[in-house]
Batch of 4 targets.
Target 1
Amino acid sequence: MSEALKTSAPTLTPAALPSADLEIKDARIIFDPIWDDLEAHFGRQHLRFPKEIILLGGAPGAGKGTNTAFIAKTRGLTCTPIVMSSLLDTPEMKRIKDAGNMIGDREVLAVLLRRLLKPEYRDGVILDGFPRTKVQVECLKMLYEKMTQLWREFYGTPLAIHFRQPVVQIVVLFVDEKESVARQLKRGVETKAHNDEVRRSGHGQLLEERATDFDEKLARRRYRVFKEQTWDALLSLKDVFHYHLINAEGAFGEVEQNILEELEYQSSLELDPRTYDRLRLLPLASEIIVHARQELVKRLDGYEISHPEVFQRVVTLIEKKMMPIITRHALSGHANINSEDTVFDEPLALAMLIDIFSERGYHAVVDVHRIEIPETVDLKTGKITCRLKKVYRCIIRFKGSEIRRG
């Protein structure tokens, strides 16, 4: 490097550091001592975090509470979500708030990391309400980096199953400001009606009445806070983790369909890279069915052109011997048929039978059962000679008929 370049580079003091660098520095000051404390308390081999962490965010009225259970079901998670507002409602946290102090990033992170180590979250967990600040965003990146280090460190060891490749997904349920405000105010009306009835009858439980649900200005302000804080925090992670922005403005069923489309299983995302590389040569079911109809037509025409005699024998077998049995099972839609017909000695006959049934709208499965039948006995040696008998077991399924009773 030239002297000119050396002298032109400014020396950055903390006050002169870009805000992003300051946030990273602040996050490191918070994160490192908490991580060191975890290692000292639990031991590195017991720092077993969830395989998958879903960061759930949503505009006010977007339906986080309504859709959390469905998101968990979609991802196959059975544990209860971690809701930061509830997690920070412990006696210890209440004492901090009662003393007039704010719950800072350090307290939030310390409580969260210990909760994530609980065994019920090993496969995955939905995390509602984190991160909310830019410092928390940087702490999340540091946590992911540590989880990845653990995965690599323990790979190939007896503990590897406890340290799988981590996956972090961001799910944001979004509605625009107009819809958010309308839903908040509607919730206020419904909550008030419910609580009035509980007070009148003495039955049921009172619901929380939020001030923002009864004042349009407050509802709009709450939406703006979401856009300026939570939205920005999650959006800043878009290029780091898997990001899903879900339209939550439609009807209940439409929103669920949007969630399904966004969170469907992706093997390249969820499997360990080595596992994925081993399996990826096998075609997906969705791939082999794309041209299945055209391939079926091509095979059937090929049978007729190249092997007409065998093709006719298989058709005759189905028509004369199988269809009468199938017809008698029209109500159940399920017929089991055994056959020893010699046509199946032809190599293509079984493939023809399956394809013919498929073209006619049936589902056919054929299993070859080999039976050794004793035929002769050598009186001198006692050796028994057996004949091999092949029985072709055909399972034919189709949509059965319904009986409607008056």
Note: Residues 1-17 have pLDDT under 50 and may be disordered.
Target 2
Amino acid sequence: MLNGLLSRIGSSGLRFLWISLVVIGVDQWSKLLVLKEMALSESYQLLPFFNLTYVRNYGAAFSFLHDADGWQRWFFTLIAVGISGVIVWWLSQTKRDQRILPIAFTFVLGGALGNVYDRIVYGYVVDFLDVYVGSYHWPVFNIADSAIFVGAMLIILDMFVDKKDTAENNEKSTHE
């Protein structure tokens, strides 16, 4: 039974779940450092366009619904857990030859679960990466958010790579 499970993991997208674990680990480690070393709203300039600034995000991306009455904490948690379940199921169904898309989804999964942990434990997401140009600041984010972004970019890349591979395969089968 264990051999069958290990074989299934090794031949599906589940073999990339270690990426999710690394993302969660680095994300939570960085957030613990921020919580231990920084006061709320404290900021340190590291580069002319980058600060470490500790903020709390009670909402979702770009602080969406941050000022709701608290229900959003559980709403976003349920959505992230549901999507995470779908991602794990999908990873278990992917074929061994797929690489970019399962890697992309493990980045998204790790980021989503990193932020879910914050919502459950703290009631908010710990954000601290502050990128800006002049006086314009991008909304402060964290490692989990960065992993979700990387995953999204890989999903887009996969759409182009997959179309190119499909076109090349169709061309080869036409000439045979």
Note: The helical segments are 2-10, 17-37, 71-93, 100-121, 143-175.
Target 3
Amino acid sequence: MTKIRISLFIMLTTLLLCSCGTTNIVPISGRKQHLLVSDEQVMSLSNEQYQTYMKSAKPSTNLANTAMVRRVGERLANAVESYLIQHNEASEIKNYKWVFNLVQDKEANAFCMPGGKIVVYEGLLQYTQDEASLAIVLGHEIAHAVARHSAERMSQQLKAQYGAQALELLLGNASNSTKQISQEVYGLGAQYGVMLPYSRSNESEADYMGLIFAAMAGYNPNVAISFWQRMSKVGSSTPEFMSDHPSDVNRISLIQKEMPEALKYYTGNPVLGTFKVPNHLKSKTSNK
């Protein structure tokens, strides 16, 4: 009898979890995602982690490179915001505040916290080498924020840990359980570095959206191929099936397939300030 009750409890909790939350449509990709946490919850928790990280991080002393990261980042953010406004999707980023930092770290890496707080490591610049390639990286990170990949990870964690933590969430006492999940998701100082990795599908989606965001801002998305080829030389002994990132070969192959779509957004001219939808795309309807 006890086993039956436990099974019924698990089934009921799982059904409740599936019925709660909201269904969101990711801009550009059009993919549906089921979220159990709100923007307010995610950004409040991630801001704590971000502030903790920045207290120990050392900002870059290279003023030219710092200015470049902010210039490229703000140009991308302006283009993305303009696109979302024109497609009646401004609500997707209504609580976002874009911040772009360059920090002293030899690792070739970058990350984005929910709400638009992006950090680039100095070690990455030897592989980007130019502003267009940097735009590919920043476009990728901005895509993670716009696509709410962190909220998606937290929601998946809550579903996986439906027991007591999920019950607390359903009963309205979400603070402790959600905060614990966020610590696992953001994992400052954890074995994976600053943030636990996104899924391979999230990474591929961010690659695709990032290409388009870079093109919107007036950067040639074709540079993504040579950039990832340079990054492949960093080397990794981890097989793709054991990694949450696509292998370099598969990543480049997917980007090559997605390039024709990204080039539709590229006018060949730098776009300063705002992004204007090209004429051949004006007939496309919003994802919402």
Note: The chain has a mean pLDDT of 77.
Target 4
Amino acid sequence: MPAPSWDNPDAFLSTDDFALEVTVTPRGGVSRTIRGIFDEPYMNAQIGEYEADSSDPRLTCKASDVADLRDKDPVVIEGRTYYLLTNPQPDGTGFAVLHMATE
């Protein structure tokens, strides 16, 4: 029986399925292309009578691909530039999540 695809992060991040190629640029470094799964869920927060519409863009990718990134580093996804809100957040499985904003 073959190993499940999540045992091989490269197979899990195949661009034939859900992954995209994105460009990351570490501070003081050279731009490079990595693969990741992008998600930008809509969020609507209500505080009393006030509402705020927002999104929470994030990219799931290999932790080793983004180990040198830091908050405020740019990530270009499908021609749109995002900036990291925090350092990459490793999840302990070899993957990391990048939380981003557009401005």
Note: The radius of gyration is 15 Å.
